[in-house]
């Protein structure tokens, strides 16, 4: 048995028990690079989802009263478990999700770092003293866990999107119900395995595999589930916001993006090309903060395109377990079809298509990295999330005009600008209508920063000192009739 196979549970984890489902209620998981069957995961029905809610509600009554240091110790043990099994988790992720093994190792580190961070934050969920006008009163606030939190996560970061939410919720004293994307259920169950070994084995962390739609409807209608945190598409986020209005839940939404990456006339060409390659092709382009539109000042446009294409064409494409490969498969054949249709639409509207021929793709779920040069805002490739290794690039002449064009989208998650000029940096930070601005780097994430978007990219922030706030309620108190000093 390979190291990672020990983590491949074909059972849900509910109330500290591993629950198997019948043969009829399960989903097959395949390696997206070669179609090989990896195993089956449960797809829970309504009754089992109800039992999971019950388990999280029961567990909350105990967990809410645990000390911050108890929560911290268990989160640290979970972090240690992930680090001690880094290679196995990375290999599992590459087989299930497809990302190149080096990126998978990076995600294990990134994902586990949230457990470490929130272990420390657990001790800092402090309240405030409010100066009272009346000397016979003392006023203040305390922070309390909101309750049971339902968590729905996507397949592109199958560990990190879970730990970023569950780490914060558990640190706050909440219990959690995690519904992972069907495609990457084994990764979620591997996290449950390590949570159990870390002592989070009494219903604090429940992994409830099955249809996201069914899970969303079920938790949204249950008043005992007090928070809903979702990462995924804006379309599904809108539905969940509507549904959760029924029980007025606390909502945290990390939704889609359409990140601009702007290379100014004074930028260092090599730094900008390196940054743009990384910002576009990590996770094979299937990343909500991937550069979706690259704007390059006309004075260096052709040089940039030439160097970008040269570097892109040198990226090896193939199975992620081969250490050499930098581009893996897309998650489904549908994603390949979508990438091709975006490129075809751009070509039909006059864009230049550059890169290797698609006939060189090493399998049906692969899309060879492609540049769409001279894109215009009317093309679908500029308006939609590509979620593929497709890089639209276009020239611009004027800073103010490119900021306006970059902002002309319903999304507002990440943005990037390359320039050494201080005044220009401030102009872009102020002007870009995005939750995050990377300047001369695309490496902007980490447990210590507030990740999130504006406009239809979401609500709330994950990570940083504000990352626990989605899972805490502020209770105000007023002590009256005190003796005057
Ligand atoms: P998706 O279709 O929205 O699916 C995400 C999750 O939602 C899956 O677990 C899915 O479950 C579930 N789901 C689907 N329909 C649902 C419904 N009606 N009610 C409740 N849950 C439902 O998104 P995706 O294509 O997997 O992921 C890519 C998207 O995620 C992109 O738009 C990307 O930008 C966004 N994303 C955002 C961030 C961020 O931090 N802002 C991070 C990563 C990804 P099933 O598997 O059962 O269908």
3D architecture notes:
The chain is an alpha/beta fold and about 475 residues long. The chain has 2 domains: about 5-255 and about 455-475, 3-Layer(aba) Sandwich (Aldehyde Dehydrogenase, Chain A, domain 1); about 260-410 and about 415-440, Aldehyde Dehydrogenase, Chain A, domain 2 (3-Layer(aba) Sandwich), CATH 3.40.309.10. About 35% of the residues lie in helices and about 20% in strands. The chain contains 14 helices and 20 strands. The chain has a 7-stranded mixed sheet with strand order 14-15-16-13-12-17-18, with helices on both faces. A 6-stranded mixed sheet has the order 9-8-7-10-11-19, sandwiched between helices. Strands 5-6-20 form a 3-stranded antiparallel sheet, with no helix packed on it. A hairpin with a 7-residue loop joins strand 5 (about 130) and strand 6. Helix 2 (about 70-85) packs antiparallel against helix 4 (about 100-120) and helix 2 packs across helix 6. It is globular. The mean pLDDT is about 95. The structure holds NADP nicotinamide-adenine-dinucleotide phosphate. NADP nicotinamide-adenine-dinucleotide phosphate binds near residues 156 and 211.
Helix content: 25-40%
Number of helical runs? 14
Q: Record the strand order, biggest sheet.
A: 14-15-16-13-12-17-18
Distance between the termini: 72 Å
Q: What is the C-level CATH assignment of the largest domain?
A: Alpha Beta
**Residues in β-strands, percent:** 15-25%
Keywords:
single chain; 485 residues; alpha/beta; Aldehyde Dehydrogenase, Chain A, domain 1; Aldehyde Dehydrogenase, Chain A, domain 2; 2 domains; seven-stranded mixed sheet; six-stranded mixed sheet; 14 helices; 37% helix; globular; binds NADP nicotinamide-adenine-dinucleotide phosphate
């Amino acid at each position: 048995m390979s190291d990672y196979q020990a983590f491949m549970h074909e059972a849900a984890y509910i109330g500290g028990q591993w629950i198997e489902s019948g043969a009829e209620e399960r989903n097959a998981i395949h390696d997206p690079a070669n179609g090989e069957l990896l195993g089956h995961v449960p797809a829970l029905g309504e009754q089992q989802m109800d039992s999971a809610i019950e388990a999280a509600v029961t567990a909350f009554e105990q967990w809410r009263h645990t000390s911050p240091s108890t929560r911290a110790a268990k989160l640290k043990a979970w972090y240690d478990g992930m680090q001690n099994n880094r290679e196995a988790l990375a290999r599992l992720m590459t087989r299930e999700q497809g990302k190149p093994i080096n990126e998978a190792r990076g995600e294990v580190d990134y994902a586990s770092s949230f457990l470490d961070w929130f272990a420390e934050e657990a001790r800092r969920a402090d309240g405030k003293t409010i100066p009272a006008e009346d000397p016979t009163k003392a006023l203040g606030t305390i922070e309390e866990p909101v309750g049971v939190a339902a968590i729905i996560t996507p397949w592109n970061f199958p560990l990190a999107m879970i730990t970023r939410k569950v780490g914060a919720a558990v640190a706050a004293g909440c219990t959690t119900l995690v519904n992972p994307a069907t495609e990457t259920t084994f990764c979620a169950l591997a996290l449950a395995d390590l949570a159990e070994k870390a002592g989070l084995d009494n219903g604090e962390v429940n992994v409830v595999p099955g249809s996201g739609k069914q899970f969303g409807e079920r938790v949204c209608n249950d008043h005992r589930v007090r928070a809903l945190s979702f990462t995924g598409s804006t379309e599904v986020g809108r539905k969940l916001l509507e549904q959760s209005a029924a029980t007025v839940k606390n909502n945290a939404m990390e939704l889609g993006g359409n990140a601009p990456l702007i290379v100014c006339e004074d930028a260092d060409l090599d730094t900008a090309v390196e940054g743009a390659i990384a910002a576009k092709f990590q996770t094979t382009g299937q990343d909500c903060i991937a550069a979706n539109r690259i704007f390059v000042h006309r004075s260096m446009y052709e040089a940039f395109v030439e160097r970008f294409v040269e570097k892109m064409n040198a990226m090896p494409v193939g199975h992620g377990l081969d250490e050499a490969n930098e581009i893996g498969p897309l998650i489904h054949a549908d994603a390949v079809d979508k990438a091709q249709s975006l490129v075809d639409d751009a070509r039909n509207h006059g864009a230049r298509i550059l890169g290797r021929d698609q006939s060189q793709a090493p399998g049906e779920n692969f899309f060879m990295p492609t540049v769409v040069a001279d894109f215009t805002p009317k093309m679908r490739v500029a308006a939609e999330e590509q979620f593929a290794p497709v890089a639209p690039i276009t020239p611009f002449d004027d800073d103010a005009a490119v900021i306006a064009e970059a902002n002309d989208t319903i999304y507002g998650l990440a943005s990037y600008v390359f320039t050494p000029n201080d005044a220009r940096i401030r102009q872009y930070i102020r002007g870009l209508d995005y939750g995050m601005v990377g300047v001369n780097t695309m490496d902007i994430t980490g447990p210590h920063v507030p990740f999130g978007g504006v406009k239809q990219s979401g609500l709330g922030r994950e990570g940083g000192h504000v990352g626990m706030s989605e899972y805490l309620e502020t209770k105000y108190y007023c002590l009256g009739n005190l003796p005057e000093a």
